[in-house]
Amino acid sequence: MIKSKKMAGRAILMAGPPGTGKTAIALAMSHELGNKVPFCPMVGSEVFSSEIKKTEVLMENFRRAIGLRIKESKEVYEGEVTELTPVETENPMGGYGKTVSHVIIGLKTAKGTKQLKLDPTIYESLQKEKVEVGDVIYIEANSGAVKRQGRSDTFAAEFDLEAEEYVPLPKGDVHKKKEVIQDVTLHDLDMANAKPQGGQDILSMVGQLIKSKKTEITDKLRKEINKVVNKYIDQGIAELVPGVLFIDEVHMLDLETFTYLHRALESAIAPIVIFATNRGRCLVRGTDDIISPHGIPLDLLDRLLIIRTTPYNQKDMEAIIKLRANTEGHVLDDEALVTLSEIGTRSTLRYVVQLLTPAALTAKTNGRTAISKQDILEVSTLFLDAKSSARILTENKDKFMR
Ligand SMILES: Nc1ncnc2c1ncn2[C@@H]1O[C@H](COP(=O)(O)OP(=O)(O)OP(=O)(O)O)[C@@H](O)[C@H]1O
Ligand SMILES: [Mg+2]
User: Fold this and answer.
1) Domain AAA+ ATPase spans what residues (predicted)?
2) Is this structure's pTM higher than 0.90?
């Protein structure tokens, strides 16, 4: 639903007992959406910071969750880097050290090669993007902004540990007009236009939406930016990409922030908001006596699409534990897996997942590579889950200090 872009301005609530995978699903979502669709996770209690207003925290995250894809035709120099030489001179101000006076860069395309002599500020951008010989990059002629597109695929045989993106050698001339696409969030735009010197790392146009730069992000600045954004959308230069604002433990918000959220959801530019909570009926924070399902005021609750998450059964837990052990590089024998899932049904999935590492260490100390039932039983007496700990507290309450 998110990918089809039909959910903007709507809100979803995932409700279910602890350990039923609400936070896990949110993480999985952000991975699946990739880096083109913004995903901004936060926890309800984050709004209670001593320095920033509650609603300001929310608004900032709201704007982090709204993307803008900007298409521009630009004059660029593009190619595979064949040479990258900073040329140094003695520091003209006297003193020690040398300064870069200019940088020589060679760019190659399928059609030809060109050598450019560039300003030292561009050298900084080149370093920021970690450009090396053999990378395919483009440099914007007007702003000098540099964008690294990937490694040239002539080097695809290189043995690389990190996943690299390989791109073909660009066609056409080095110096040309190019359709450039940038993905930014509204928050990026706020920042680029607020900071006195922002905008170097973000490409040119975005950093100059507004002529006079201010030092702070204010409501007024945001309004101005929205105006320009709307104009770009109308002109077909930009496209809105509603992302996801994920608010975990939403019962931690209070009446004021709920009201603010409700209003923000109605605005024309809004992301998809996903809430999660493990609370049943409880007090709405910031009120004296309003009890409501999930601690959410009824009028907001009324517009949510609610997804229920239910506890995993033993078979589900086995599957999840197995996956988890694989990811963490632990080997489990079958008996250990069953034991873990049994403990999981009595305590929580989160608890048994956390037992994996200590159990693996115990197995290793005993000279074994696979985790056995015995290791699980041993660590489960050393580390308690919340329920057992609470039980021990009540059973021994006279032995503890008050
Ligand atoms: N489907 C799943 N696949 C893999 N791991 C999962 C899955 N569901 C839950 N887990 C793991 O189980 C543990 C608990 O899940 P999660 O943190 O998502 O619960 P939750 O519903 O957010 O609980 P709470 O209400 O307490 O915040 C985590 O370690 C999580 O990684
Ligand atoms: Mg959670």
Assistant:
1) 8-298
2) no
